[in-house]
Amino acid sequence: MDRDDHPANVAPTFIETLDLGSSHSQHVHRSPSLKRRKSASSHRHSRTPVGTKTFILDTNVLLHDPASIHKFAEHSVCIPVDVLSELDRFKNEMTERGANAREVHRALMKTFAAPDASVTDGVKTPGGGNLRVVIYDPETAKQIASVKEFERIFPNIDKVDHRILACALWLREQISPPVILVSKDLNMQLKARAVGIECEDYLHDKVEPREVSNFEITRVDVSSHELQRFASSGKLTLSAARIGDLVVNDYVLLTAGEKSSMPARMNAQGELVRLLHTPESIKVGQGRSVKPMNLGQACLLDALLDPEISLVTCYGQAGTGKTLLAVAAGLSQVFGRTYNGLTVSRPIVAMGQTVGFLPGSLQEKMRPWLQPVYDALDLLMRPVDNQQGPQRKKNRFLPEKPPAQTEATAPYDPLIQQGVIEIEALCYIRGRSIPDRFFILDEAQQLTPLEAKTVVTRMSRGSKLVLVGDPAQIDNPYVDSRSNGLVYTRQRMRGQPFAAHVPLAKGERSPLAEAGARLL
């Protein structure tokens, strides 16, 4: 994939293990002082601490996390000047990407603001490493064998990704290894490995694979006596060795044998307590009642209805009931006056081909993206026909009375018009403060960690934020199952007394949907 074909035109860059203390000017200015500069560079290089690495950052890494320049501890960080040129292309965009590009520029200016700071020689970072900008000069580097071979394989050296790759090869000849390219562009990583450059993904905001590999509720084995005591008192204290790494608001299933089990939640005192907020069913107005169909759904309802929990994250494959239960819990609490209204949103990331620009108001533009939420609202609020027995026979010889010529409206339309139910576009959420709302963010796995942070920091007192999604279904080219905003928020907020997480493993939509999610 060429750089122009890279998602959102983000240029891949390298992260290499460089001696940031080494002089870079000899590679830029071919002057009589070149030998003296080389000598000074070699002297500084000899003092490089053993075990440090040099990382070259790709453009997409900086756009993904503007603070990445300070997250390599004692190691050296190099930014090719071609990366700065690419960042300049995005700085005027009124998008999250444009905001990140501007933030990178501000961070670099602040880092090099000291009067004696040298952009090309580098400055010390808070972690004890070094940060500098690297200027690659093809005329200076063309005598290096690895660079000459690279230019033979990739003759179009004017392409930015090829210049960065050549820069990485050139730097590897100037300093001690390891020199590592850090890029979120998989094609760039393949090119780098093809020419012998060590490379890796940006790992700072990635969660452990085990965090997203198992959606089952944790099981804790107890004795029959302990389970009976828990059933009568509603509390159970176990040793740290038996509960493992459970933290506050983690849900578990206490099991005593194959047929005896009870769900429980870890409280702030380290006790396993009974679920207190799981009703048999939820019913909104005259609509259809919804009841938890399995253990995971019961735990999710407990978290959604607990007033002490203001952040709920939920993983689950298609058909597990994430969105329906979140909307049902939110509506029931809005009707119960716990919250002033229900706000729903989701990232605008298309799967496959799109139908182009959508006309109409914000609500009309968002409707195709939020159709699952509208389906849930319609299911929960549309009056149920409770007529029992067979339908009465009608006289087919008498004409039926024509229906009234009134425009059909959905049962939730009046609530939308009154602002009780609000459709929010994430692109307009920056700067808002959202109090006393039940906020549902569907398909949260499409968010980047910074976008998730933006949403979380909008929540004011009295609001509850619910992030639901499936880490296995991602269309955003900048994130994957271990680095998206949903799993990142879950991992960073784990253990906070106001945060809870529930995984859903069993699909309840239909046997066909469950088999499709499991087998296809």
Automatic annotation (TrEMBL):
Alphabetized InterPro entries for the sequence: P-loop_NTPase, PhoH, PhoH2-like, PIN-like_dom_sf, PIN_dom
Domain of life: Bacteria
Keywords of this entry: ATP-binding, Nucleotide-binding
Pfam families: PhoH, PIN_4
Residues covered by the PIN domain: 53-190
CDD domains assigned: PIN_VapC_PhoHL-ATPase
Segments of this protein annotated with the region Disordered: 19-51, 386-409
GO molecular function: ATP binding
UniProt biased composition (Basic residues): 26-47
Family stated for the protein in its record: In the N-terminal section; belongs to the PINc/VapC protein family. Belongs to the PhoH family.
Protein name: PhoH-like ATPase
Lineage: Bacteria, Pseudomonadati, Verrucomicrobiota, Verrucomicrobiia, Verrucomicrobiales
